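Renewal narrative, Specific Aim 1. Our central claim is that a sequence can be written position by position from structural information alone. The example that follows is taken directly from our test logs and has not been curated for this report. It begins with the structure tokens describing the chain, in the order in which they were read.
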């Protein structure tokens, strides 16, 4: 059976032959593996590429004296949202149109090789979206699941026009579950990254809605997830308003915006303190400054359903839009 190698594969192979340093050779081999046609005629070539990648990585690790690669992304904004999905699901394109960040968008799988953080603006907040290499059984760096576990929430991106949709869904779910990661809905109790099984609040984004097969695929996705997990249908090629994504992330991460007010002055409504549902006045005081939490006597509050300047105590639960004046 002929291999029918793609131009992308041949270009990566040519670059590999002229590469001088191991890191460049490794990048070329990984691109060759990601772009090689997957059929019986290339099985031996795929196995050989995987062996060469493994040998190169072993050599780099021994040279550096490290047992493995470690990657971490510092959290910014109201929440860190990691994007997960199968190869070519449209994660990079979605990040690019929602954040205006420049990502490596290509029509072949595995074009994303390293984590790419970017900020999505929603009203007076920003969410940090982290584009990741795909979840795959062909090859996946160990640090990918480490970053997923450490995120605040996840966005599962799915190509709604994919003819192998059901198989891809099952594959991604199985790989993550084997890594002790469960993607759950906003109404299920999440936990933090250090737990033995990470229960991660998630939404699903069905992409490529501009393609004819997407309508049927979206119905399959909704049947698979709803009502457990919210499903959003978007097209990176046609849509210009992605506020629905921001609103869903706001709800998913259980965010409450609280504003600080100095006595005798107006509150700055452009700079909220990011709290979460269930947080109390004492939690807000500690976020403003630890000294406020220690010395707090009471506070006054302005907000929906409250008397202006109403006096509240330390255990008062706060809601979105509250304006708080602390008194020590």
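The sequence written for that structure reads:
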């Amino acid at each position: 059976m002929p291999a029918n190698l793609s131009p992308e594969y041949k270009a990566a192979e040519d670059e590999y032959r002229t590469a001088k340093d191991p890191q460049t050779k490794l990048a070329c081999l990984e691109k060759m593996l990601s772009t090689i046609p997957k059929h019986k005629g290339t099985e031996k070539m795929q196995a050989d590429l995987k062996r060469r990648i493994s040998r190169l990585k072993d050599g780099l690790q021994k040279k550096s004296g490290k047992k493995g690669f470690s990657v971490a992304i510092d959290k910014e904004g109201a929440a860190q949202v990691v994007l997960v999905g199968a190869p070519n699901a449209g994660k990079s394109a979605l990040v690019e149109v929602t954040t205006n960040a420049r990502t490596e968008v290509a029509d072949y799988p595995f074009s994303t090789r390293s984590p790419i953080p970017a900020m999505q603006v929603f009203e007076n907040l920003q969410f940090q979206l982290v584009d990741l290499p795909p979840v795959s059984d062909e090859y996946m760096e160990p640090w990918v699941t480490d970053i997923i576990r450490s995120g605040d929430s996840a966005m599962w991106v799915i190509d709604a026009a994919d003819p192998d949709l059901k198989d891809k869904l099952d594959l991604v779910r199985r790989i993550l579950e084997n890594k002790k990661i469960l993607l759950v809905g906003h109404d299920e109790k999440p936990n933090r990254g250090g737990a033995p099984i990470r229960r991660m609040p998630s939404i699903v984004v069905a992409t490529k809605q501009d393609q004819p097969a997407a309508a049927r695929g979206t119905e399959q996705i909704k049947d698979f997830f709803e009502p457990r997990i919210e499903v959003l249908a978007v097209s990176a090629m046609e849509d210009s308003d992605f506020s629905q994504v921001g609103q869903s992330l706001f709800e998913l991460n259980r965010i409450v915006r609280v504003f600080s007010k100095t006595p005798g002055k107006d509150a700055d409504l452009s700079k909220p303190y990011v709290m979460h549902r269930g947080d109390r006045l004492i939690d807000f005081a500690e976020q403003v400054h630890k000294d406020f939490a220690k010395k707090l006597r009471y506070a006054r509050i302005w907000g929906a359903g409250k008397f202006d300047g109403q006096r509240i105590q330390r255990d008062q639960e706060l809601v979105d839009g509250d304006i708080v004046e602390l008194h020590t």
